[in-house]
Design a protein that fits this description.
This protein is mainly α. It has helices at about 5-15, 75-100, 105-110, 115-145, 145-165, 170-185, 185-200, 205-235, 235-255, 280-285, 285-290, 300-310, 315-340, 350-360, 360-385, 400-420, 425-455, 460-485, 490-520; strands at about 20, 25, 30, 35, 40, 45, 390.
Length: about 525
């Protein structure tokens, strides 16, 4: 254990004190991120003492909540879930705006007399800015607060979206798309910090699934609606007016219901600063007033990024996330080209309406993945806990990823063969659907694993996983279609499936050696 810990690490440690009873020694912190989650040990219920339990009277609440009603852990069920929906919708706006621009490249190319492939570069830039913005905004939530960062970034992103609706120039559109992605990505990384602040350890997997499920729908919902709009109007601007409407709806919810979830549980309730009014917390005035001694310093907030990135398991986890998820982004970015290429040129020749219906495939896939994972992740966790005397370790999360792999690899192969041999579009539906179900399962499980490994670094974990996701997808957007056209989609998607198999090797190493790697690397300082 390092001698010097960040304020948030100290906060966590004050919530994992030891308690004893005649039969079992109850210590919540079992060392190396293992925790006691259930006091029913070997069929005998231990004496919880002063440890606070969930309503089932045997699940240990981690972190231990204070008695302060202002503690986000003590907020009402409805308030927690309204805020969870808001941060999920904010995350939705980022990828929805990105995906909605994909079918627009053909009418935009016609308007600006440009090759659609060149117009698509604006979409590629938007994607990489989603990753860069995620890293940029995370330190701000520790020295300024969660609520003002989300409020101001979504507000700025809404105005940049309005600019996209009104611009007449591709150069201006290109710049606005970059700024739009840079600002609207905040919900994709701040969301995990809110989940960590408001929900207990045993609730994390399900809440991550709900949050991730909504924003992982967005890159498919965007092109789905956009294709229907373009088919009906022949114009790309109504698509961005729809994006603007969703951003405005999100802003209304933020203004009405969002609250600041940063809370110092190591400070006694009597010494907590007054929380201020709703508006002052929303725009960041309250956070500035109480900053000294309550929030982290600017320097330490940025140092936290490095402290997480240099931990031994983070790069393997990020590599796994990139190799499994990047093909999803790549297919999405190039879908209008892959599926709308005329038959005489070797494509399927789908019109905008047909491509819109095809996008129902990944939407259903994400929904199935969330529904299955919502229950299966908890089942696997509870199974491990029962077998290990109430103790849980982060590596127990990873079993779900093997099931995900069994769907992702054949799914990619089927999509490649369908495109290569011009099989019936139902083959694309089956393959794409299988792959997306696997991606949804893998993303939630690996995110929960990383959060369990470094619970005091929820924001940093989230931003690095998001960066890995979009960075890989950004690169695929440039070579997916030319690669398939040159070497054949059967070969290109087959190699993609092979790289997912390589990711499984990384997963096995994390699963087998992750605990030891964390122990040797030590805690985050």
């Amino acid at each position: 254990m390092a001698d010097i810990k960040s304020k948030e690490t100290q906060i966590e440690e004050t919530q994992t004190n030891s308690h004893a009873h005649p039969h079992h020694v109850l210590e919540i912190d079992q060392g190396n991120n293992a925790v006691l989650l259930d006091i029913n040990v070997d069929g005998e219920k231990g004496d919880a003492g002063s440890i606070k339990l969930a309503k089932d009277n045997h699940t240990v609440l981690i972190p231990q909540p204070s008695n302060d009603p202002e503690d986000p852990l003590n907020w009402s069920w409805s308030k927690k879930h309204i805020i969870l929906f808001i941060v999920a919708l904010s995350a939705f706006c980022g990828d929805f705006s990105s995906g909605a621009g994909i079918p627009c490249i053909f009418p935009q190319g016609a308007e600006w007399n440009m090759d659609p492939n060149k117009v698509n570069y604006a979409g590629n830039l938007n994607v990489i800015m989603l990753g860069i913005g995620g890293i940029w905004w995370i330190p701000c939530v520790y020295y300024w607060g969660r609520a003002p960062v989300l409020f101001w970034t979504v507000l700025a992103g809404t105005f940049f979206t309005l600019g996209c609706c009104l611009t007449k120039s591709f150069t201006a559109f290109y710049a606005l798309r970059a700024l739009q992605g840079f600002t609207l990505t905040s919900g994709q990384t701040i969301g995990l910090a809110y989940i960590k602040d408001m929900f207990f350890f045993h609730e994390h997997a399900r809440k991550i699934g709900l949050w991730a499920g909504l924003f992982l729908l967005s890159p498919y919902a965007g092109p789905c609606f956009a294709n229907f709009i373009i088919d009906g109007t022949g114009d790309w601007r109504p698509v961005f007016w729809l994006v603007l409407a969703i951003c405005c709806a999100d802003m209304v919810l933020i203004v009405c219901f969002l609250d600041e979830s940063w809370y110092r549980r190591d400070i006694a309730q009597a010494d907590q600063p007054p929380r201020g009014n709703h508006f002052s917390k929303l725009i960041g005035i309250w956070q500035i007033q109480v900053h000294k001694g309550y929030f982290l310093t600017v320097l330490s907030s940025y140092e936290r990024l490095w402290s997480v990135l240099t931990k031994s398991i983070m790069l393997p986890v990020m590599t796994y996330q990139m190799l499994t998820f990047m093909w999803s982004v790549g297919i999405n970015i190039t879908s209008s080209i892959l599926f709308a290429t005329p038959r005489v040129a070797g494509g399927y020749g789908f019109n905008s309406k047909a491509v819109g219906f095809l996008y129902l495939t990944p939407i259903v896939g994400v929904s199935i993945g969330e529904l299955f994972g919502h229950f299966f992740n908890d089942f696997m966790a509870n199974r491990y806990i029962k077998k290990h005397h109430g103790v849980f370790i982060p590596e127990a999360r990873l079993w779900t990823n093997y099931i995900a792999t069994s769907l992702m690899i054949p799914g990619l192969i089927i999509v490649g063969q369908a495109l290569e041999k011009h099989l019936h579009y139902s083959a694309i539906v089956i393959g794409w659907g299988m792959y997306v179900v696997g991606v949804m399962l893998a993303s939630v499980a690996i995110t929960a694993y990383a959060l369990d490994s470094y619970p005091t670094r929820s924001g940093e974990v989230s931003c690095f996983l998001n960066f890995a996701r979009v960075c890989g997808g950004f690169t695929v957007g440039y070579f997916q279609q030319p690669w398939g056209a040159k070497d054949g989609y059967g070969l290109s998607f087959g190699i993609q499936a092979l790289l997912v198999a390589v990711a499984v090797g990384i997963l096995i190493c994390i699963h087998r050696f992750g605990a030891g790697m964390r122990a040797r690397a030590g805690t985050v300082d």
